[in-house]
Specification:
The chain is built from eight helices and eleven strands. By secondary structure, the chain is α/β, with parallel strands linked by helices.
């Protein structure tokens, strides 16, 4: 039976592929705060603006590729039961070959009905426009968890982390929730790795091995080490 590796991934791993959050140094996008175009209130006030914002993000996603960190995690699946819990809304983990990915905050390449949240659709192109409707005739919205909305997958994420034999936190600081909260659900005897060039406050977490490098530099080496470990124990 394969040992379970659980990966908690965040924006840092995707940034190395060129994914932008469209924030400048002032935290603005076209003079709007990020929260002003990523909330139910924004959708109610100006849905066309919200659609434009996510269209820009989606267009960029169609133009970038997974990086070495994504591929390293995918390689591990041949030797471990790898479960990825990601805060990212891109599909770079899947495109690299990872097959068990839980998206906490939704998926950029999907839309859903505003009348029936169970109606979710794959987007084959980057643009979602006003007037694009579900089969019930209601406007489609981005399949994204906005500020102020419940993270519906949190319970499932906790159950995954509880089964970890090895936990890898990458691309997200342990100052940022939900990753900072999820790590507490890992079994006490679970081996834990944090890949973070800054890695502030890491000492507060019991038994954490800190690798102060970028994901694309650190993960390939860690993956090879874990693969060697798995093959030598067969």
């Amino acid at each position: 039976m394969k040992k379970t590796i659980v990966v908690l991934s965040g924006a840092g791993i995707s940034a190395e592929s060129g994914i932008s959050t469209f924030r400048d140094s002032n935290g603005l996008w076209r003079n709007y705060r990020f929260e002003e175009v990523a909330s139910p209130e924004a959708w109610a006030r100006d849905p066309a603006l919200v659609l434009e914002f996510y269209n820009m993000r989606r267009k960029q996603l169609f133009e970038v590729e997974p990086n070495a960190a994504h591929y390293a995690l995918a390689r591990l699946e041949a030797y471990y039961d790898v479960r990825i819990v990601t805060q990212n809304v891109d599909d770079l983990h899947e495109r690299a070959g990872s097959t068990k990915v839980l998206h906490l905050h939704g998926e950029l390449k999907k839309s859903r009905s505003t009348a029936d949240a169970s109606l979710i659709y794959e987007l084959k192109h980057w643009e979602l426009k006003p007037g694009d409707t579900c089969e019930k005739g209601s406007q489609l919205r981005p399949h994204i968890v906005w500020f102020g909305e419940e993270v519906g997958e949190m319970f499932n994420a906790i159950q995954i982390v509880k089964k970890a034999g090895i936990l890898i936190v990458v691309g997200t600081s342990l100052n940022v929730y939900p990753a900072a909260g999820l790590i507490h659900y890992a079994p006490r005897n679970c081996r834990k790795y944090l890949i973070d060039p800054v890695a502030e406050k890491a000492e507060q977490f019991h038994g954490l091995t800190v690798i102060r490098e970028k994901a694309g530099t650190a993960l390939p080496g860690l993956a090879e080490s874990l693969i060697s470990e798995a093959t030598s124990s067969v």
